[in-house]
Amino acid sequence: MESQGMTKSNPMAGVDETFASSLDVDALKLAEMGYKQDLKRNYTVLSVLGVGFSLTNSWWGISAALITGINSGGTVLIVYGIILLALISTCVGITLSELASAYPNAGGQYFWANELAPRRYANFASYLTGWLAWAGSIFTTASVALGTGAACVGCYQLAHPNFYQVVNIFSFFFNCYGRTLPLLGQITLWTSLISFFVILVVVPAKAPTHQNARFVFAHFVNGTGWSQNGIEIHRPERMIPVAILGTVAIGFVTSWTYSIALFFSMTDIEGLTGTSTLVPILALFYQALRSKAGAIVLEALIIATGLGCLMACHTWQSRLCWSFARDR
Fold first, then answer.
1. Could you give the residue ranges of the DSSP H alpha helices within the chain?
2. pTM of the predicted protein model
3. Dist. CA 115–CA 230, nearest whole Å
4. pLDDT, tens digit, 9 for 90 and up, residues 240-265
5. Which segments of 207-235 does DSSP mark as H helices, in order?
6. What does the alpha-carbon distance between residue 317 and residue 298 come to, in Å, rounded to a whole number?
7. Which of 158, 215, 243, 320 could form a disulfide with 211 if both were Cys (CB 3.0 to 4.6 A apart)?
8. What's the distance, CA 239 to chain centroid?
């Protein structure tokens, strides 16, 4: 199957049957799309799930932007918003899974745009999709780096506005040695899930008081000021859809239960908005545990998870940039 717009070599042109039989099934499918296999397929489905979940880690995102959601609608916005977003994400995940199964290519969306758009607009659609996707990966990387760096600064209550660059550079060097990335994907997945479980249990258990169900499920706050009116993996056509839908499922379960546990353990919303650490989730941990050391330990789990997310972000944007540069 040839691309409609991008120029690619055809490594299968002129090869004899003996050589073709020496290639594995994955390499043959890649060759049918006009590519030769350049990268080793050392990712398992668990490694891909780890990278995917690290990129879309819902409960970590809630931790990093807790007060934004609360000010924009209160606990009710987050609790019910997660359910709505899970339904939407499931639909998106099914669509992406179908495309990944039919066209397992490292280029992802820009490759699919090139294959499925009308021939007249294929090049433009692919080019625009690729650049927007890569820009999105850069912005996401910067956001995760800022959130993780701010969490580190908050733990020490120091004013180092550029500290986030330290963790950003740290994660960048990890991606310079690709052999460790599959293992790191699995480590970050388990780090995230273990951190989630520890925080989910410890915060409600140690909180001196608990909010009522009305506060958690029906409390609305308007603080906005507005009026209230394809990768290195075997059998990618099967494994990538499993990883995509697994990411959506794990993201919903972890973020929803995590949010409810935190909101029941919250004692002072104003204390979160005015915290001297500028890290509201750290202030919430301190409210619940009444121990600075305990709050810092829980925040350290957030930081460890954030580093895994940041490494996955670098993997995402570097692989996308490589794939985009490969196609002409």
1. 17-22, 25-32, 45-55, 58-64, 66-71, 74-102, 109-116, 122-156, 164-174, 181-206, 213-218, 236-265, 269-273, 280-289, 292-326
2. 0.71
3. 14
4. 888 888 889 999 999 999 999 999 98
5. 213-218
6. 29
7. 215
8. 18
